[in-house]
Every structure is written in structure tokens, then in C-alpha cells.
Design goal:
12 helices; Rossmann fold; globular; alpha/beta; 2 domains
Length: 395
């Protein structure tokens, strides 16, 4: 009788073990738990908070529609405060304690770079909220980009100066912070200056700076024709205001982090004439997909159309959209590998026009290679797009 019991129980135990081993962390029959590392406090808090709002509102919208393949999405967030040690702690908490399936974030290049080895080790599909090409070159199997890279934005700005404006031997300068994000922009500016055979002057303006007098005076002595601001919004706005105060007359260009209505509203008259590149549509643009995003958002938060949400809000919306699209394509059999393979089938996806075409493949996870030029509209406190989606001429 004892032997018969063992014989009968053994297949049941084997079935239970197989079911347990087949479970995917963070995925149940009716929920998907997603981790989100923000920087909602610290030097880029305003930018990060806009991204977070976009992510949360899109997920709320998806859940109202029934979720993804019958599963509701649960977002679990941790704030890094723009700190690498805190980002690493947040990653571990979200993965090992909260048991999340995938990750949005982190929000800074330094944090994301520090976590790449852990992402690869744990095989967790991640969309970092940073645009550095080091996230995708060389290929990181579980990392997918969702924004035009900082480097590509620099290339487009050089193309604009040299090819669109037909500038002859211009003196170009770049202002950047002495952190990982700043250094990738500086390095690309050096490369493009060499390609086009032009001078490049560099000024470091650190994160959290409250004034930029010495940098502006140094720049004034150099007397550049164009100044590229590759920074976050607050220091970039400080530099623009100080430049106007000290009479630095030049053409200001901004990369994706500063091509934003917040830069215009903080800089006011000092932003006049500024041209920049971004890959996310603005809240107020007359584009069907933007109208739909506004409609959904204002249904959740009536009476909040103004002040306008920034382009970072659209970025958060798009990041959540891409992840949702990948999980939809993966179907009910959802795990890291099926999601990864599904993400790699996404081609020419732009959220209906909220961004330029996004494509992935098994050999290329950059996603975004298109940008659009914007010009500051000081009177209305916004940036206005002009031209079409464009790729860098020297990728």
C-alpha cells in the first residue's frame, strides 16, 4: 500500500514542480508587475516627474482597456534621486523583493551603465530612460532604446549647421555637465567637429549649478557662431539667461534633453531664436495621436490642459506604449525570452505619430534613429517643430 501511494503521488509532485519552475517572475494569470526606477527627486526631478506621469497614465489607460492579453499591469516605482548607489539598491529591491517582471529606467546614463551587468545576468528586459548609445552599441540583448540617442541629436545639429544653413568654417562650442550623460555628448561633438573640419570649444557646467558667469565669460571670449547646450533643463536655462545678461550674442542649439517647453518658460526672452532637436511630439501639437493622448490624459485629470505638459510627458507615454506593444505581441506565454523576441519584431512603430519610426531587430536594439527640429516660441512659451523626421547624415 505504501509503495502504491508513492507511485500515485510521484506524478503529482512532478507536475507541481514543473508548474512552479515554469512560472515567470512578476507574471500571474491576471497581472504583470513592472519595475520603474525614477529620478523624481534630485537635479532632474522636473524632467523625471513628467516621464513618470506619462508612464503611469498610459498604464492606467491600458488597464482600463482590459490590460495586456487579459492581464492588468501593476507598476512598482523606486526613486533613485539621480544617484548610482540608490539606483542599484532600487534595482535589487524591485527584482528580488517586489519580484517585478521588467523594468522602465533608470533615468540617468550613469545609473543605467552601472546596472548593465545585472540586467544581463538576470536576463530582465529593460527600457532605460536614457538616450546614450552605450545602451545599444554594442548590442545589449535585454536592453531596448526608446529615444533618439544623445549622439544622434548632436549629429543632426551639426548637419543643420553645416548642411541646412551652409555655414562656412563656423566656430562651434558645447556646454555639458561632467557626468556620463554629458561626456557622451561632448565626445560625439568632438567626432562631428572632426568630420566637418571645424573648431570646437568646450565648457563644463555642472549639475545643480546656480550660476554660469565664468562659463559665459569664457564663451564670450571665444566668440562662437553656435553654442550647443547638452544639459538638463535648469542649468541650460541658467546658461541662456546669463548669456543674455552678459551680452553673449550667438546661435543656441539644444539636444533632446533641453529641446523642451520648460527650457523656454524658464529662460523666457533668453531662449529666443534657440533651435533644438527632439524625437517626441509636444502636448499641444495638431497631430491625431497627440490629440488622443491629451483626451485620455484630461479624462483622468480634468482641467489640467494648461500649463502644457512637456515633451518628457510624451516620452513617458511612448516608453510605456513600446513595452505594452511588445507584451501584446508576446501573447499569453509571457516570459523574458518571448518578450525579447516579440520586441524584436517591432518595425516602424511610432505611436501613431507621437514619435519618429521605431524599429528593433535581433542585431539592433537602438529603436530610434529619427529626430525633428524645433524652434523656441518665446511669446507662447513653447517649442514649435519645423521640417520632417530626419536621420543624421553621419550615423
Amino acid at each position: 500500500m505504501k509503495n502504491i501511494s508513492i507511485f500515485l503521488i510521484a506524478p503529482f509532485l512532478l507536475f507541481c514542480y514543473s508548474a512552479i519552475s515554469a512560472e515567470t517572475r512578476g507574471v500571474t494569470k491576471d497581472t504583470i508587475k513592472m519595475g520603474h526606477i525614477t529620478a523624481d527627486t534630485g537635479p532632474i526631478a522636473k524632467d523625471s516627474q513628467s516621464i513618470t506621469e506619462g508612464v503611469r497614465n498610459y498604464i492606467r489607460h491600458i488597464n482600463e482597456q482590459g490590460g495586456i492579453n487579459g492581464r492588468k499591469v501593476e507598476l512598482v516605482s523606486e526613486d533613485s534621486g539621480y544617484s548610482i548607489p540608490r539606483a542599484m539598491s532600487a534595482f535589487k529591491k524591485l527584482l528580488y523583493k517586489d519580484m517585478v517582471f521588467t523594468f522602465f529606467g533608470p533615468t540617468s546614463t550613469g545609473e543605467a551603465t552601472a546596472l548593465l551587468s545585472q540586467i544581463a545576468k538576470e536576463k530582465v528586459v529593460t527600457v532605460p530612460i536614457t538616450a546614450a548609445e552605450t545602451m545599444s552599441k554594442p548590442l545589449k540583448r535585454y536592453v531596448f532604446g526608446a529615444s533618439l540617442s544623445y549622439e544622434a541629436a548632436i549629429r543632426i545639429l551639426f548637419d543643420y549647421v553645416m548642411e541646412d544653413l551652409k555655414s562656412k568654417n563656423p566656430k562651434i562650442a558645447i556646454v555639458y555637465p561632467d557626468v556620463e550623460f554629458g561626456k557622451v555628448g561632448r565626445t560625439e561633438a568632438r567626432i562631428q567637429a572632426k568630420i566637418y573640419g571645424v573648431e570646437l570649444h568646450e565648457e563644463i557646467l555642472n549639475m545643480g549649478s546656480l550660476e554660469a558667469t565664468s562659463q559665459v565669460l569664457s564663451m564670450k571670449k571665444y566668440n562662437p557662431d553656435f553654442v550647443i547646450l547638452h544639459h538638463v533643463i535648469a542649468p541650460a536655462s541658467i546658461f541662456l539667461r546669463e548669456a543674455r545678461k552678459f551680452g553673449l550674442k550667438t546661435n543656441f542649439l539644444t539636444t533632446i534633453t533641453d529641446t523642451n517647453l520648460d527650457t523656454v518658460t524658464m529662460s523666457k526672452e533668453a531662449a529666443r531664436g534657440t533651435v533644438g532637436v527632439n524625437c517626441f511630439r509636444s502636448w499641444y501639437e495638431d497631430v491625431p495621436a497627440v490629440k488622443k493622448m491629451r483626451e485620455i490624459t484630461l479624462r483622468f485629470h480634468p482641467g489640467t490642459d494648461k500649463p502644457y505638459r512637456s515633451e518628457y510627458y510624451t516620452a513617458g507615454w511612448i516608453i510605456a506604449t513600446i513595452f505594452s506593444e511588445g507584451m501584446k505581441r508576446a501573447g499569453r506565454d509571457l516570459n523574458n525570452e518571448t518578450l525579447l523576441q516579440a520586441m524584436e519584431t517591432i518595425k516602424e512603430f511610432g505611436g501613431g505619430g507621437l514619435t519618429g519610426p521605431i524599429s528593433y531587430s535581433p542585431t539592433d536594439h537602438r529603436g530610434h534613429v529619427y529626430g525633428m527640429l524645433y524652434k523656441a516660441d518665446v511669446e507662447n512659451g513653447i517649442v514649435v517643430s519645423f521640417g520632417n523626421w530626419r536621420k543624421p547624415l553621419h550615423p
